């Protein structure tokens, strides 16, 4: 099984969902974990849970759209644990829903700032620290939406998350010689608060589940396992990829 012993991982969007599951898993696999999100209370509960299980973790609350915060997360990893080996840029929002002609420019921009620009700000701060350790893993949470399948009413979400795939490829080419692997993780429908916000009734969730070849939504812990693969030496020759962990939704038709 993959191990993250003697490594330090930074995870954003860690207060719930995939990010929280990844923080717990990475810590169980031996990583020292720096967790980030806006909700300080939820982060402290997560840190306490990791520490109670014998792991090492610390939290820095803030807004991923802030370049100063991006640097503060990296500095915490360096100050507390000696460096940075893994950066999982997972924070994101659903953005405005509904017909595109009704989307306000301010809501569109907020989605791009949170889902795409924040990833650039994070990577810009993280890459020098990863290089200083002789390499590492840089991961972005993207989505199959707008990549292998289109859905109405989610233009901002699809555009901003799809942009992460282009960012992934550019950074993989740029940083490969330094031993920094860069990959995007594309979950399918996952049982998180975001999925419930997009599909607000049991009937809607059931319909989304049926779109997947496996006939169900993922658990956050299952997507965290895919992130662990990208973070660990199990993927030592994998970079520049858009890794689908989507339950077969991309190949399902009808």
The rough form would be described as: globular
What is the CA–CA distance across the termini? 36 Å
CATH superfamily assignment? NAD(P)-binding Rossmann-like Domain
Q: Spans with pLDDT under 50 lasting ≥5 residues?
A: none
Query: What fraction of the residues are assigned to beta strands by DSSP?
Result: 15-25%
Tell me the count of domains.
1
Write the layout of secondary structure elements.
Blueprint: E1 8-12, H1 17-28, E2 32-37, H2 40-52, E3 56-61, H3 67-81, E4 86-89, H4 105-132, E5 136-141, H5 155-175, E6 180-187, H6 193-198, H7 202-211, H8 220-231, E7 242-245
Parallel strand pairs: 1-2, 1-4, 2-3, 4-5, 5-6, 6-7
Helix pairs in contact: 1-8, 3-4, 4-5
Question: What this model shows, in words?
Answer:
The structure is a single chain. The chain has 254 residues and is α/β, with parallel strands linked by helices. The protein has a single domain, classed as NAD(P)-binding Rossmann-like Domain (Rossmann fold). Helices cover 46% and strands 15% of the residues. The protein has 8 helices and 7 strands. It has a 7-stranded parallel β-sheet, with helices on both faces. Helix 1 crosses helix 8. The termini are far apart. The relative contact order is 0.15.
Characteristics:
alpha/beta, globular, 254 residues, 8 helices, Rossmann fold, 15% strand
């Amino acid at each position: 099984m993959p191990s993250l012993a003697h490594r330090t991982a930074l995870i954003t969007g860690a207060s719930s969902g995939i990010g929280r599951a990844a923080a717990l898993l990475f810590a169980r696999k031996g990583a020292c974990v720096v967790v980030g999100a806006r909700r300080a209370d939820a982060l402290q509960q997560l840190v306490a849970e990791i520490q109670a299980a014998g792991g090492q973790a610390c939290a820095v609350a803030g807004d991923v759209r802030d370049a100063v915060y991006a640097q503060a997360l990296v500095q915490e990893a360096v100050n507390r644990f000696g460096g940075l080996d893994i950066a999982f840029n997972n924070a994101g929002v659903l953005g405005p829903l509904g017909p595109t002609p009704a989307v306000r420019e301010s809501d569109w921009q907020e989605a791009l700032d949170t889902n795409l620009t924040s990833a650039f700000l994070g990577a810009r701060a993280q890459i020098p620290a990863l290089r200083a350790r002789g390499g590492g893993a840089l991961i972005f949470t993207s989505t199959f939406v707008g990549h292998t399948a289109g859905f109405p009413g989610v233009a901002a979400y699809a555009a901003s998350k799809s942009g992460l795939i282009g960012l992934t490829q550019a950074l993989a080419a740029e940083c490969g010689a330094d031993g920094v692997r860069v990959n995007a993780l594309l979950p399918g429908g996952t049982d998180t608060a975001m999925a419930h916000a997009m599909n607000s009734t049991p009937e809607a969730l059931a319909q989304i589940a049926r779109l997947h070849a496996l006939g169900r939504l993922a658990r956050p812990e299952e997507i965290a396992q895919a992130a662990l693969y990208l973070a660990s030496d199990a993927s030592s020759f994998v970079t520049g990829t858009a890794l689908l962990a989507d339950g077969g939704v991309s190949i399902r038709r009808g």
